[in-house]
Amino acid sequence: MKILVFLPRQLGSSLLSLPALRALRMNFPTSEITLVGNESFAGVLARLLPDYSFLSLAEIKDIKKLKSASQVMARQRFDLAVLLDDSFASALVAYLARIPERWGYDRENRGFMLTRKIRLKYTDPPLHLMDYYLNLLKIFGLKVEGAKTHCLVSEGSLQAAASQLHQLGISPPNNLIILKPGSSYGLARVWPLDYQTELIDRLLRLKAEIVLLGSPASRPVCEKIASSFNGRVYNLAGRWPLEDLPGLLALARVFIGNDGGLTHLANALGRPVVALYGPTDAKICGPVLPPAYVFQQPAPCAPCSYKNCPYDHRCLRAISPEEVFKKVVELGQFQA
């Protein structure tokens, strides 16, 4: 049997679908499972899931790309398409590729293209994304209990990351704390920079080695923070290839981040995670695999979809450096 899985378009959402992918493998141990998703992070998923095949798919914005994608899928002769991506386009590609079985949620008016579908009611309680993806398989009769969650990193990837840290002067990386200060989504998800600076200052007193990570879009925020510490903080935002990040994150004693793909990547690798959530709802998209702790304070304007807060950023300002510091010390087992 050949199975095609359409992954969500965002890295964080795709990482939250890992338990569902493991459940698929558990139910179809001898099947060939191919994952299709955003080409920007296909490389990192290939590192995490070596027993799956991958197809990169650019975002479908016109008829030409739609036709090309469906032809590629048709040539593969898949028997089943599982649509973890809720878009109309993913269902249309599977439909045009004439994949016999097409499973997914009936969203975006795409139900007529699905052979098995689930329609959620407005009165249904919201599900965390991890459970949302598992629910799709469970309702269709597949076993989801006991699916493996955390991912492993190869010894070669660990050694390569350790070697690169050594070149920066971090060796051995026993006290490595990785912080994701910025957000490619927008400043609304960024914990106040004065809070982050205060936290880093306290962590440096514990002899921690601090590395800042993020996308190229996060680099200005990271540079501003790093400039306060005269070379004692390493700014690697936009400088470490995404596909090599699992090796680096696996060496972290603690990861500190906001709502974003790297937070979920560290969580999938089993690293202790301290997550700082403000405008988005951690009950829907927060890290859930232990060990992880989520800070989120209620605010009358949250959750929201603003890229930049038009008010006083109270959702994230309500999370103090002191409480975050204590949790990092606890999870990292530092001697404060």
Features:
336 residues; alpha/beta; Rossmann fold; six-stranded parallel β-sheet; 16% strand; globular
Helix content: 25-40%
Number of strands: 12
Pick out the low-confidence regions: none
The assigned CATH architecture of the largest domain is: 3-Layer(aba) Sandwich
Indicate the radius of gyration in whole angstroms. Answer: 21 Å
What is the name of the CATH class of the largest domain? Alpha Beta
Largest beta sheet: strand ordering: 3-2-1-4-5-6
How many structurally independent domains?
2
**Can you tell me the overall shape?**
globular
Q: Total helix count?
A: 14
The major beta sheet can be summarized as:
6 strands, parallel
N-to-C span:
55 Å
Strand content: 15-25%
Mean pLDDT value: 94
Query: What structural class do the secondary elements suggest?
Result: alpha/beta
Task: Spell the H/E element sequence.
Answer: EHHEHEHEHEEHHEHEHEHEHEHEHH
CATH fold type of the largest domain? Rossmann fold
Q: What would CATH call the homologous superfamily of the largest domain?
A: Glycogen Phosphorylase B
